[in-house]
Amino acid sequence: MGLYEYYFVHLIKEQLALLETDQQHVAVETILNAANSYTQNGLILVIVLMLSLSITSFLCIRILVNLLHDMNTRLKAISQLGATRRDQLAVDPIPVISQDAIGEIAININQLVNYIQDLSLFRRTLEGDESVDDIYHRLIHVFRERLKLNTFAIWEITEGGSINPVLTYPAEIETETCQLNFAATCRAYRTGETVNSSRYPGICPVFPQTDTMTHCCVPMRVGGKILGIVQFLFMYVNSLERQRHFAYSLNLARQYLSEALPLLHAKHLHDLATRDALTGLYNRLFLESNINLLVAGIQRRSSTLGVLMCDMDQFKLVNDEYGHEAGDKVLIALANLLQSNIRASDLLVRYGGEEFLILLSDCHEDMAVQVAEKIREAVASHQFRYENITMRKTISIGISEFPTDNTHFWETVKYADVALYQAKETGRNKTIRFSPDMMKEE
Length: 442
Fold this sequence. Notes:
Elements: H1 3-21, H2 28-83, H3 101-128, H4 132-146, E1 152-157, E2 163-169, H5 187-191, E3 195-196, E4 213-222, E5 225-235, H6 240-274, H7 284-300, E6 305-312, H8 316-322, H9 324-340, E7 347-352, E8 355-360, H10 367-381, E9 383-386, E10 389-392, E11 395-402, H11 409-425, E12 431-433, H12 437-441
């Protein structure tokens, strides 16, 4: 029975009760009046209900339209964020006004926006990093702190086709993971596909911990070329829940890798061009590309740049007596020794062969001579080792200063080279400061 009919029957019952109990006669006209009253009140009630429903529906539709408008705005911002990653787009979260399907959609869109914003910020941060090592350490932070992937190794593929672990976390797992010499023996490199032993146990015969650990190897592919492999390690996956967790974390890790790889490749190529392959030091190309900025800073501060040209004495004897591999080991040790005896703000360059150039920034009076003598003594007292061979070597150093000796940087380098020649000619194992009379002798 509807509300309208219920109200009518109730009035009729009341009027009949009056007919039975009232001592006076009630005219039939009273019943008719009651019916008219019922009609008027019913119409008013219906109108009120319809207005209430209309207002409520309008408000609900308005709220829904506003919510959809907010979602559309966020989705447009996501599109712009994908097209212009370098722009910092502030996208406010959609308010969650209910716990139903619409609220769930709002939550999912908020999570998607946050994820894309985080990827964009991650990429912009990488663009400000200077080296390959900086990018690797940025990835380590993401893997560990955000994705809770705490055991992994990063392998690089060399031009010669070998594969080497460049970073492992923690460091001690290097002896527990794959022992590879050639990239072709790695299934992930050979196939170019992700290799996951949680789905297919024993899929890679090279992996040594098949009984205790699960591994997932992700190729670092850029432009059809595989730069290396990222290998994630877990304790053996024995539950569907853990497998889903790892799958989710690995999927996010691949997304972060995809953001890092183009920049990693570019900086790797830059390092190949501007760093010495043997010692890892900057080379002459780097110096030529960046010296104007360094000189401008010295001039702006009205400061002095110390120039040390260093050359190991009789280095050729090492190659002749012990071979070029021994000579390479000695040069690497010398580079490390030189780096440890200068400041982080100074620049060490492998200038060519066994020659190294050191630039001492903001060099006060006599500082260059003091640093050069410190280096000479450190080299003379150092024992260079190769396999079971121990040898002693010395170094000669020529010293000049920019702009004290010359207002042109490359002329100042030439002066340091002239002083080095004097050190060699007068007995080696010396540090000599340039003086103008040396140019007359030259």
